[in-house]
Design goal:
single chain, 270 residues, alpha+beta, 2 domains, 10 strands, 19% strand
């Protein structure tokens, strides 16, 4: 029987396990292939209506499917815990399905049957890059834009980061996670407090791991530009406290999780 990680699906980003890593996991199995119903719809208004209904369904079942909804209790947290955003901008999803539609129709017109996962990867990348803008490294601005309003005790919308060029791994991974879920895929939004890449100190990092149609784990890390197949069970490695090492053939090598335990126990993913 395939191992289930449902026992961790309700964990929030700021509720780290003892090993300094957490995962928000899920899948909405009854929407597999629904993306095609949306992209084949000729009316943009009708497409947006279908997307809105799909988002309502995902939010209603967010405790089971792991979707980052717009609910008050669901927020993407970073910094010292007083910096958060709500993933509540529908335009992200409208843009994603427009990008997916363009890719799908272009392939169909050329008589090429592109794999669903390939179209999804390209459309997710384009959507995230266009929404947040090219990363400029201004993390101080990111912290200023996402501070808690202590008068209202409210956190801002992710929209404050739109086009600012300071969106980083946490929010990009959260958006990617949601978009993979909308494709009907099984997705794991992972966050570690101890990651280490070349020429960097021990730091936190967020990324996605997705099950492909063969049931194998794939890495999707927009921030580091790493996309590809993973070996074994990286979720188990991450949560067990073992170092999750990403090597060849990935573009940016490093320890994705539990870098602080590197000397004690090494579990490479090369």
């Amino acid at each position: 029987m395939e191992k289930s990680y449902s026992y961790i699906q309700k964990k929030q980003l700021d509720q780290m396990s003892l090993n300094g890593a957490s995962v928000r996991y899920g899948q909405q199995p009854d929407i597999a292939g629904y993306w095609k119903t949306i992209v084949e719809c000729d009316s943009k208004t009708a497409r947006e209506t279908l997307i809105s209904k799909l988002l309502e369904k995902m939010e209603e079942n967010s405790e089971q499917n792991g979707f980052w909804g717009s609910q008050e209790e669901l927020r993407i947290t970073f910094g010292i815990g007083t910096n958060s955003v709500h993933l509540d901008d529908k335009n992200i999803y409208f843009s994603f399905f427009e990008n997916l539609r363009n890719t799908y129709l272009d392939s169909k017109e050329k008589g090429i049957e592109k794999p669903e996962g390939t179209m999804a990867v390209n459309s997710i990348y384009t959507t995230i890059e266009n929404y947040f803008g090219a990363f400029n490294g201004d993390l101080d601005k990111r912290l200023e834009l996402t501070e808690l309003d202590f008068d209202t005790f409210e956190y801002p919308s992710v929209e404050v980061l739109k086009g600012q060029g300071c969106g980083a791994c946490v929010e990009k991974a959260a958006v990617a996670h949601n978009l993979w879920l909308l494709m009907g895929r099984e997705s794991y939004y992972a966050c570690s407090t101890s990651a280490k890449f070349e020429n960097s100190s021990d730091e936190g990092h967020a990324f996605c791991m997705i099950k492909n149609q063969k049931g194998n784990f794939m890495l999707y890390d927009h921030a580091m530009g790493n996309f590809g197949a993973l070996q074994g069970d990286p979720v188990e490695t991450l949560l067990s406290g073992q170092p999750l090492i990403i090597g060849q053939p990935f573009q940016n090598h490093g320890v994705y999780a539990n870098a602080c335990n590197l000397e004690q126990n090494v579990a490479p993913n090369e």
